[in-house]
Amino acid sequence: VYNFEMKEPLINHEDQIRIFFQSHKEIDGIFTINDMMALRVISVMKELGKIAPDDYQIIGFDGLKTSVDQSYLVSTIVQDIGMMAKESVAMILKMIKREEILEKRIVIPTYFWGDKTTKKI
């Protein structure tokens, strides 16, 4: 298990990713902080001659789509953005009205959507 944190400011993502994976060729499973970062890793890995999910598997986090009727771009942990927005606005309105907030932590369900960049089990 490797924890790869990029140096800030976050510039030259691809160079940092390339150097890391050239140094750790044995890695065959990747989890990224979001789907955009997963797409950057996929691009670099393609340059290195590796294709997901045959050579490695990768999972993003957030459930990014380019449009409502499109599929997810990578295997991902999907968040219900609509519910997140609704609950956030409700809590902010309570704060503005100085109402008591009984639940300071709201759990919003997520789910795994695997297709393009992970193997079927």
From TrEMBL:
One of its GO terms (molecular function) is transcription cis-regulatory region binding. The keyword DNA-binding applies. It comes from the Bacteria. Pfam families: Peripla_BP_3 (PF13377). Coiled coil: none annotated. Residues 28-110 form the Transcriptional regulator LacI/GalR-like sensor domain. Keywords: DNA-binding, Repressor, Transcription, Transcription regulation. This is Substrate-binding domain-containing protein. It comes from Streptococcus pneumoniae.
